[in-house]
Design brief:
α14 packs antiparallel against α17. The chain is built from 18 helices and no strands. By secondary structure, the protein is mainly α. It comes from Tranquillimonas rosea.
Length: 359
């Protein structure tokens, strides 16, 4: 197992490097970079830098030759200053190598437009995304595992049939559409006003008692978590059912029943551990999946300031330090979580040997 882990850790390096190279190259061809963003703000805000040009006609003529769209009329000194501040006065290869060297030291730089380090910015938004990802994953598991086991036991019966209909409907409904439905029905739409429209806590949250803070937090997070959970719950239920069905049909289950063991003893004493292997071992990957996927729309609908909105706003503003810093960090986290998932398979079932399979 040690050799397998070492190989996987070494494989992380070229994989992560490939991700960064591909995305860095793509950004070189995307129009509207950070300098164009600043130029657009300047042009839209009036003649803010009129005092810098001094030369009037000559400066305008020089700026008209600029490679940046919308730079007409701005002094070339201002454009050059922007290039130095953003690091675009250096060749792309040198910028990429410098960026990767800094990332290896976990120096992710500072946001172009927020005057805050990327690490502090991510830490500021992290509680919202962790709340959605963690609670959605836990609730999905708490519902899906017993429901999936029950469906496996009642396979082909009316219970299995009508619950499958509900699961298929839940899987087919987009999470953002379900979120809007929850808002309309339960959060001040045309019907009930049981839950708040936005935010993770109330404005006077700090004045609450400990119990009051817990209740307020649950009150705010309930609808976003339900909207995020619906898709994961459907997938995990069917995964649990199919896993248990495969185990129930195996010879050791038939032998256990022939020995006179009760159905409950057979199910939870023999089938449960083998049937839960793929479900439990996939918990880290499931959490990361819910943590990253679909968070943008849910956060936008419920006005939650999390990593989904951060990534979207950084992409729109071409805030490259935020884009590449979060891409590097979360890409690394995703690769490590994949390795952890494999290790969990071995911990749960020692019969699994990845090294033997590779050999």
């Amino acid at each position: 197992m040690g050799a397998y882990i070492l190989r996987r850790l070494l494989l992380i390096i070229p994989t992560l490097l490939g991700i960064m190279v591909l995305n860095f190259v793509l950004t070189q061809f995307v129009p509207g970079g950070p300098i164009e963003q600043v130029i657009a703000q300047v042009e839209g805000g009036g003649d803010v830098f009129a005092g810098i040009s001094g030369g009037g006609g000559d400066a305008a003529s020089a700026a008209s030759q600029s490679e940046y769209a919308g730079a007409r009329g701005l002094p070339p000194e201002f454009i050059e200053q922007l290039e130095r501040e953003f690091g675009f006065d250096k060749p792309p290869l040198e910028r990429f190598l410098t960026m990767m060297w800094n990332y290896m030291q976990f120096d992710f730089g500072e946001s172009y437009f927020r005057s805050i380090s990327v690490v502090d910015l991510v830490l500021e938004k992290m509680p919202v995304s962790i709340s959605l990802g963690l609670w959605s994953t836990l609730i999905a598991y708490l519902i899906s595992i017993p429901l999936g086991i029950r469906k496996a036991v009642k396979d082909g019966m009316p219970f299995d049939t009508w619950t499958s209909g509900i699961i298929i409907a839940a899987y087919a409904i987009p999470s953002f559409l379900f979120a809007i439905l929850l808002l309309v029905v339960f959060a001040g739409g045309s019907y009930l006003q049981w839950f708040p429209l936005r935010g993770l806590t109330s404005d006077n949250f700090e004045s609450f008692t400990v119990w009051g803070k817990i209740v307020d937090y649950i009150w705010h997070i309930a609808l976003p978590v339900i909207a995020t959970t619906i898709g994961a719950f459907a997938t995990l239920t069917l995964l649990t059912k199919n896993s248990f069905l495969d185990e129930i049909k195996k010879q050791y289950v038939i032998t256990a029943r022939a020995k006179g063991l009760t159905e409950r003893r057979v199910l939870y004493g023999h089938v449960f551990r083998n049937g839960m292997l793929i479900v439990v071992a996939g918990f880290p990957a499931a959490f990361i999946g819910i943590f990253f996927e679909g968070s943008l729309l849910i956060e936008t609908i419920f006005s939650l300031d999390g990593l989904g909105r951060l990534g979207f706003e950084a992409a729109v503003a071409r805030d490259y330090p935020v884009i590449f810093g979060t891409l590097f960090f979360f890409g690394l986290v995703g690769l490590v979580v994949g390795l952890i998932s494999d290790m969990m398979y071995v911990l749960i079932d020692p019969r699994i040997d990845f090294e033997a399979r590779e050999g």
